[in-house]
Amino acid sequence: MKRLMAVVVVAALVVGLGGVASAQTKLRFAHTISPDDAMHLAVLEFSKKVAQRTNNAIQVEVFPSGQLGNDPKTLEGVKLGTIDIGMTGNPFFTSFAPELNVFDLPYLFRDFAHAYKVIDGPIGEDLRRGLETNGMKALGALEIGFRNLTNNKRAVKVPDDVKGLKIRTTPNPAHLQAFRLLGANPAPMPITEVYLALKTGAVDGQENPIAHIYALKFHEVQKYMSLTFHAYTMSNVVMNLKKFQDLKPEHQKAIFDSLAEARDWERQLNRKLDGEALAKIKAAGVQVEENPDREAFRKVVADATAEEYVKKFGRDVLDKIRNTR
User: Fold this and answer.
1) Distance between CA atoms of residues 253 and 26, nearest Å
2) Helices and strands in the chain, H and E counts
């Protein structure tokens, strides 16, 4: 009898330990952003809030700087389930859900407030839902920001100044078309490869928001910067769909709520960092054109890229975005 009771106690302990182990879920979150960047800090904030909301039942481990692969590989990992959560710029998602290309149309958003209402609201949610057919659950979007142009050849004040420049862009069709319209040679490549490409002269320039240009140290290998604000970019955060569905409903809610809080926190931080980064970029010796002829740039690229989108997907979503107040 004593031996039987001992076996029962041991079995109970094993089951109990197994229950404790299975009660904690670890999720790997991969992205290619520098640890100095606001988006990475927002991901850390997200991880902390998830742990708090779930009483440590969900632990999010963060892998920055392309540790688990570049942007396309990160998304493929999330799709296949080898990575639990991933984050990258919206342009990299358009091969899965091409309707998302609308968010990257040049000069579409009037300002930050307009972008937030569209991206966080029903329009953004509906379009990101299309990613589920590729095994990805959209959790929301962090901010990359309004993009600006840097290069090593010359100051850019008007559209003609862009002609002939080889510019690293995202793979987004609207970005590629816009730079071709400006007479540039767009060269899409993963962000992890851009610094070396700029340093070696494989490309003349690139385009990104101010704080990202500084965080990625592009100012070290670029001579000119122009605040064109030519497109707003967000970074979608997605989770493997099956792993999300396997979570308890209260844990699913904790993940959504935590990302929304981290998103708002990051946006406030970005406004501060943009100003600080611009001052540091200038101090590093980069010649900054703060007031290029943005209206001239808009006239060259805005309508043409928008019409290309309309040909493929209709005018409904575009009109809804433009009419959002």
Assistant:
1) 17
2) 12, 11
- State pLDDT tens for residues 18-64: 444 346 999 999 999 889 889 999 999 999 999 999 999 999 999 99
Distance CA 29, CA 297 (A): 37
Tell me if 88 sits within 8 A of 75, measured CB to CB.
yes
φ, ψ at 225 (rounded to 5°): -140, 140
Q: Which pTM value belongs to this model?
A: 0.84
Give the whole-angstrom CA distance, residue 211 versus residue 213: 5
- CA 325/CA 141 separation, integer angstroms: 20
Q: Give residue for tokens 């979503």.
A: 317
DSSP string, 56-93: TSEEEEEE-TTTT--HHHHHHHHHHTSSSEEEEEGGGG
Coil, helix or strand for 299? helix
Domains of the chain with bracketed CATH: 26-322 (3.40.190.170)
Q: What does each C-alpha distance from 277 to 12, 198, 210, 221, 290 come to in angstroms?
A: 58, 19, 7, 15, 14
| Cα(93)–Cα(73) distance, integer angstroms | 12
Tell me what percent of the residues of the chain surpass a pLDDT of 90.
86
In the chain, beta strands by DSSP E: 25-30, 58-63, 85-89, 136-146, 148-151, 166-168, 185-186, 205-208, 224-226, 232-240, 287-289
User: Given the structure tokens 């609201």, which residue do they identify?
Assistant: 121
As a residue count, the chain comes to: 325
